[in-house]
Amino acid sequence: MSNRRTLFYELAGIIFIIAFGSVLHFTFEWSGRQVAVGVFSAINESVWEHLKLGFWPAIVFALFEFTQLRKTVNNFLLAKTVSIYLIPTVIIIIFYSYTAILGESILAIDILTFIIAVIAGQIVSYKLLTGKKLAPKLSVVCLIALLLLALAFVLFTFYPPRLSLFQDPVTGEYGIIVH
Predict the structure, then answer these.
(1) What is the pLDDT of residues 104-137, one digit of tens each?
(2) What domain range is 37 assigned to?
């Protein structure tokens, strides 16, 4: 019964992350470009900013899921950390692979890439949650890893490295521009 309940939450997580992430694509503009909203939303069309669309919803859902599953699953923090790191990794690999082949990005493929990444993350999370219990010391490493990624998303919103991952292909600019 525990595995079915866990599967239900992981499937619900797919829907939540995709739906909430899709909304976050627009919230910065909808807010009138409020800086605080930009920390959690895509502020431009760079690949990096689109990675936030998987990260923040996955964090929110993981916090909710923790309240529901913490006593019935194994490796919770490890499962969520691996899942949350896998989502942007899959997006980056697929995006740069297909654009290298086609020479351009295609919106439908970008959306499908996001969906595939979220599904992959939730599948891996399910496997770890229902798998053999691993060393509890991993939880500390996982918490640090999640905090570092959150810090990177916040910091690089304002001070992105001058790399193509962070460059808005539409405007050529980097990061948030505060007027």
Answers:
(1) 999 999 999 999 999 999 999 999 999 999 888 8
(2) 2-166
